[in-house]
Amino acid sequence: GANIAAVHYHFGDKEAIYRAVLEYTARQALEQFPIGGGVPADAPVEERLGAFIRNYLERLLNEGRPAWFGRLLAREMAEPTSALEHLAESFVRPQFARLRQIVTELLGPAADETRVLWCCFSIVGQCLFHKHARPMIARLAPEQGYSPQERANLAAHISAFSLGAIASIRASAAGAGGNA
Predict the structure, then answer these.
(1) Environment class of residue 114 by beta-carbon count within 10 Å: exposed (0-12), middle (13-18) or buried (19+)?
(2) Could you tell me if residue 47 is left (phi over 0), alpha (psi between -120 and 50 degrees) or otherwise beta?
């Protein structure tokens, strides 16, 4: 019901208003679920990983206004517009940098660029699976819900699973002289 002239006056075109909506929902999501998850940067690395995963899952699976951003970002990744570059730089890159730092610490001497990236993508992929496959999960495992407690349990599982995998990669690389 908005006056199209007012939209053009304030935003210029549909793409600009779409970018403004994405920026607004991104700010809301980060206000509710900040990047560090309330965990200090000098907290144990395992705690920082857990906080990262909890917050990421909350942004993806929570209902209500912050969830808008998860849906918009998912669509943007599947069907990119010119807004994707801005989102990558302003919203996703700072979060990914945090995750890279955590994974690099966890891998220790085994932390080459490829291993770090693959571990980061594996962690993010586990979280995104529950966002994108939710309709199928509901059909295959209807008992799997996403209440706040179930999201916390899922975050703990993904954290434990990821910590185990990263520890295995670190040990394997150490046993192979760093070339695993």
Answers:
(1) exposed
(2) alpha
Task: Report which residue type is found at 165.
Answer: A
The encoded tokens of residue 54 equal 């909890």
Unique residue bearing structure tokens 């570059």: 85
Among 127, 115, 118, 159, smallest CA distance to 61 is for 127
Q: What is the distance between the alpha carbons of residues 42 and 47, in angstroms, rounded to a whole number?
A: 10
119-142 burial, b if ≥16 CB within 10 A, otherwise e? bbeebbebbbebbeeeeeeeeeee
Torsion angles phi and psi, residue 38, rounded to 5:
80, 5
From the list 124, 144, 147, 125, the residue with the least C-alpha distance to 134 is 144
What is the structure's pLDDT at 65?
A: 61
- Amino acid in the structure at residue 160: A
66 pLDDT more than 60: no
Tokens of 155: 């975050």
At residue 3, does pLDDT exceed 80?
Answer: no
